[in-house]
Amino acid sequence: MSVIQVCGLTPLKGEISIQGSKNAVLPMMAAALLHRGVTVLTNVPVIRDVACMLDILESLGCRCCHKGDCLVMDARSVTGTSIPEEYVTAMRSSIVVLSALLGRMGEGSCCYPGGCLIGARPIDLHLMALRALGADIRERDGTIEASCRKNGGLKGTEIHLSYPSVGATEQAILASVLADGVTIIHQAAREPEISQMCRFLNNMGAVICGMGTDHLMVQGVAGLHDSSFRVEGDRIVAGTCKSGTYGAAVVAAGGEALLRGICPSDLKVPLEEFQKAGAAVDADEKNRQIRICMGKRPLPLLIKTEPYPGFPTDLQSPFMAFLATAQGTSYIEEQVFEGRFATAKILEQMGAVIRTEDQRAVIEGHYPLKGAAVNACDLRGGAALMVAALAAEGDTFIGECHHIERGYEDICRDMAALGAHIRWVGKDS
């Protein structure tokens, strides 16, 4: 059983480098199936979700080698078209492999995806996009079967998303790369990970325009070529302490941290919220680093999660954790995933005072929190417990840390580098 022990109330100080982006690298790995050759990625994080996607690729016949931060994928021998159920139910990102199989093999099948229990997260938009491109899709007995062979392959079209879903946008892009003709995706998601995936695909020979906007145009091509690409730093990890998550850790514990290898503009809104909370933020776009300093208890905030460029839902839980120690009352409105407030009940075990109703949370600041034995219920919620533990008196033991390991390479190593009293007391092999 993976357990993390944290002894709180120690200010942080130091610097760390941010791991490659989980949310960017997973669809890139799926995209490697589109090319009948070799694709190389660098700055790939060593995390459970990457290992799961590697298992999927290898089950389909792709030969993979992951050494250090370098991942080599040889998709010349891919013959499989069905994604094993045990991988799909473990990780939601696996669903994007379906579009890559359609583009490469003309067919693909999988069960419904799993991942963190943070809300309904339906895949209706995913399937709508594939059907618009000419895929015949059947849903039966919990399985999705897709084929475009009878229709002569996928065809370029216009896709109108009713919501800027990241997953549906990725699905539509990957299915369009080898389609016949031009595809235009309206109300596409604008997250930096989407733009990064498009740059990666263009580096392979795809033709995608409109990156960073909500209207993407994909000109289908006959084939792709061997390529190498470096994955950008993870803005969500950064947000805790590695930018987003790690930034929240600094605000909770106090002190100063330099976060390297992250694009500050990708974290514009969270960094503004850090400043509103009383932190000093120095964003260096040229050198791709962020310095965060905090010398007092945080000020209360009013936060509303939204699709990019709004406040990211993935950082809602870490922000809730440090706002539990704020000098006043904070409010969070969750507009993306209704299940994100599950962490609030766990934070209450550490002395946090939080009221939730529907999609709104009211957080009464209280300092310090108190150490307790708690269990992570999802990836970002687990990181939030680590943030809260830094502002808690005594020891906190965080169980079910396999959730954290899905997205963070080694959160104890990183936090210890900043001076936190944190260690693994039990770790799954």
Structure class: alpha/beta
- Biggest sheet strand line-up: 24-26-1-27
Output the CATH homologous superfamily of the largest domain: Enolpyruvate transferase domain
The description of the largest β-sheet is: 4 strands, mixed
Uncertain runs with pLDDT below 50, 5 residues or more?
115-121, 239-243
User: How would you describe the oligomerization state of the chains in this entry?
Assistant: single chain
User: What radius of gyration results from the CA coordinates?
Assistant: 21 Å
Give the class-level CATH name of the largest domain.
Answer: Alpha Beta
Query: How far apart, in Å, are the first and last alpha carbons?
Result: 9 Å
Would you report the number of β strands? Answer: 27
Contiguous helical run count: 15
Task: Give the amount of beta strand, in percent.
Answer: 25-35%
CATH architecture label of the largest domain: Alpha-beta prism
- The geometry reads as elongated
Which fold name is given in CATH as the topology of the largest domain? UDP-n-acetylglucosamine1-carboxyvinyl-transferase, Chain
What is the mean predicted local confidence, pLDDT?
Answer: 92
Integer count of domains: 2
